[in-house]
């Protein structure tokens, strides 16, 4: 399956490697956008046995990154966790290597308190 920046729904995980097939066009469509092209990229890898909570953990990372300015980023305990697909089942849901299709830009505070 091929993706382009225009056809990828905002806020979802998309495969860049799945079923022994690379999808470089997807990676290029996401990283070659004018608004983020010159920004550094962080690669976050979560590895482990299947059905051990990797997608669940990644969804918490997304929640934090989308709420960086809030001390209440964890949300309510009854709030549904969204992001990477996960469920309580014996079968894996997330396969291959995926990238989040929405840029998560992290601003840093400098020593004088300004934001980069």
Explain this structure.
This protein has 116 residues and is α+β, with helices and mostly antiparallel strands. It has one domain (13-100). The chain is 18% helix and 10% strand. It has helices spanning 24-31, 54-66; strands spanning 13-18, 21-22, 97-100. The longest helix has 13 residues, at 54-66. Keywords: GTP-binding, Nucleotide-binding. Residues 38-116 form the GB1/RHD3-type G domain. It comes from Meganyctiphanes norvegica (Northern krill).
List the helices and strands and how they pair.
Blueprint: E1 13-18, E2 21-22, H1 24-31, H2 54-66, E3 97-100
Antiparallel strand pairs: 1-2, 1-3
Main traits of this protein?
single chain; 116 residues; alpha+beta; flat
Mean pLDDT: 83
- In total, the number of domains comes to 1
Strand order of the largest sheet: 2-1-3
Overall spatial form:
flat
How much β-strand is present in the residues? 5-15%
- The separation of the N and C termini measures 37 Å
Radius of gyration, taken over Cα atoms and rounded to an integer in Å: 16 Å
Please give the number of β-strands. Answer: 3
Instruction: Specify the oligomeric state.
Output: single chain
Q: Count helical runs.
A: 2
Secondary-structure element series: EEHHE
Q: What does the largest sheet look like?
A: 3 strands, antiparallel
Structural class: alpha+beta
Poorly predicted regions: 1-9
Helical percentage = 10-25%
